[in-house]
Write a structure and sequence with these properties.
Elements: H1 6-20, H2 22-44, H3 51-59
């Protein structure tokens, strides 16, 4: 039960090609490559937030409610 020889891998490759066909394997390879490229670009670039965007978020944040806590204890009746 050691490692497989080159003949085992060639037979496996031949069976995979017969089942899926070369066109479908080529499409799957290009789709996988495109997905990996998109993932790498997404990890590399960080979304930039300008000062105007943060200022707009503060303006839309809502109202500040001021108050004072009289008693922190909770009573269960």
């Amino acid at each position: 039960m050691g490692s497989f020889s080159i003949w085992h891998w060639l037979i496996v490759l031949l069976v995979v090609i017969l089942i899926f066909g070369t066109k479908k394997l080529r499409n799957m390879g290009s789709d996988l490559g495109g997905a990996m490229k998109g993932f790498k670009e997404g990890m590399r670039s960080e979304p930039e937030v300008s000062k105007d965007d943060t200022h707009k978020q503060v303006e839309q944040g809502g109202q500040t409610i001021e108050g004072e806590v009289k008693d922190k204890s909770h009573t269960n009746a």
